[in-house]
């Protein structure tokens, strides 16, 4: 009950104000602090001339160290907080920057607005901020699809999963999860430099997101008004995705909005020939992306309701 209240406080603060630019300019952000530690370990420990087994072991050690340091500092901070509602509120305040509800919506809205105005160049610039594929090769549908996929996947990674682990383990839970997710985003790639060194980071991230990804799919389905269509798409296509987790929220959103997602895409260093999700549906457009944002907001309201129900013990 205490952790549910703290996560509700964190979600409420983030929804209201996000992480203000003036605060970022002054102190940065906890993710950038975690990222600095990861970068330091990567540059010092990731020796490209070492054997693959050695790089795997050293990468696993670096991964566990980052998680332990982040979770340990959070546990120490939580232990110093007062009991009762003052401690709950302070826990929520400390957890607030680890929830990305407002910023995720803002980034996708920054794509939807110029796309709706047929300003493809501006939409490409905005979508380049949230996806890794080459924006110059994206047409109108490609931009909408990329933004919608990012919205679906990051609803799980950026909002539902942090809140889930915060609900389970309080401030150490949400902080450790954020370390895991940041590790995966920085070193959990199948590139020559990171395939071995980041192997443990990628596997741990897969495990940490196993339940949250499926919970996100359920939230999208329930909030969509078309739960049957959304869940049929999940059951048919979620496991076809290259990721063991991202396919779940993407499939739920694709089924709910009757659009197709995933499919072939071009990154800076490779072409990914991925299977389609909801292949028989049409490509999304700007209107569908706006509907996806509305679905996202309803799903987040439902998430807040679930936290409130957990708070009162239902």
Describe how the helices and strands are arranged.
Blueprint: H1 2-17, H2 21-27, H3 30-45, H4 52-80, H5 84-95, H6 101-116, H7 120-127, H8 140-187, H9 199-208, H10 210-224, H11 227-237, H12 247-257, E1 261-262, E2 265-266, E3 271-272, E4 276-277, H13 286-311
Antiparallel strand pairs: 1-4, 2-3
Helix pairs in contact: 1-5, 1-8, 1-13, 3-4, 3-8, 4-8, 5-8, 6-7, 6-8, 6-13, 7-8, 8-9, 8-10, 8-12, 8-13, 10-11, 10-12, 10-13, 11-12
Descriptive overview:
The chain has 314 residues and is mainly alpha-helical. The chain contains 13 helices and 4 strands. The protein has helices spanning 2-17, 21-27, 30-45, 52-80, 84-95, 101-116, 120-127, 140-187, 199-208, 210-224, 227-237, 247-257, 286-311, and strands spanning 261-262, 265-266, 271-272, 276-277. The protein has a two-stranded antiparallel sheet with strand order 1-4. Strands 2-3 form a two-stranded antiparallel sheet. A hairpin with a 4-residue loop joins strand 2 (265-266) and strand 3.
Keywords:
314 residues, mainly alpha, 13 helices, 72% helix
Give me a quick take on this structure:
The chain is an all-alpha fold and 314 residues long. It has helices at residues 2-17, 21-27, 30-45, 52-80, 84-95, 101-116, 120-127, 140-187, 199-208, 210-224, 227-237, 247-257, 286-311, and strands at 261-262, 265-266, 271-272, 276-277.
């Amino acid at each position: 009950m205490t952790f549910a209240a703290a996560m509700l406080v964190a979600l409420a603060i983030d929804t209201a104000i996000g992480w203000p630019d003036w605060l970022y300019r002054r102190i940065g952000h906890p993710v950038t602090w975690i990222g600095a530690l990861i970068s330091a370990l990567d540059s010092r420990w990731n020796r490209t001339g070492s054997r693959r087994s050695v790089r795997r072991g050293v990468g696993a050690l670096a991964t566990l160290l980052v998680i332990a340091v982040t979770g340990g500092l959070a546990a120490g901070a939580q232990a110093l907080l007062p009991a009762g509602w003052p401690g709950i509120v302070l826990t929520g305040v400390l957890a607030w920057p680890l929830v990305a509800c407002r910023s995720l919506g803002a980034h996708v809205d920054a794509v939807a607005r110029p796309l709706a105005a047929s300003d493809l160049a501006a939409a490409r610039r905005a979508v380049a901020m949230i996806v890794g594929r080459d924006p110059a090769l994206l047409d109108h549908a490609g931009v909408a699809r990329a933004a919608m996929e990012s919205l679906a996947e990051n609803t799980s990674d950026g909002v539902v999963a942090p809140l889930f682990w915060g609900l389970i383990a309080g401030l150490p839970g949400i902080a450790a999860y954020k370390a895991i997710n940041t590790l995966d985003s920085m070193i959990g790639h199948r590139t020559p430099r990171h395939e071995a060194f980041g192997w443990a980071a990628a596997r741990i991230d897969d495990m940490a997101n196993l339940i949250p990804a499926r919970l996100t799919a359920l939230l999208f389905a329930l909030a969509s008004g078309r739960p049957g269509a959304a869940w049929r798409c999940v059951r048919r296509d979620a496991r076809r995705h290259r990721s063991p987790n991202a396919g779940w929220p993407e499939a739920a959103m694709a089924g709910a909005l009757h659009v197709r997602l995933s499919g072939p895409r071009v990154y800076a260093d490779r072409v990914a020939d991925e299977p389609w999700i909801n292949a028989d549906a049409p490509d999304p457009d700007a209107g569908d992306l706006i509907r996806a944002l509305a679905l996202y907001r309803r799903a987040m309201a439902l998430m807040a309701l679930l936290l409130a129900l957990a708070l009162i013990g239902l």
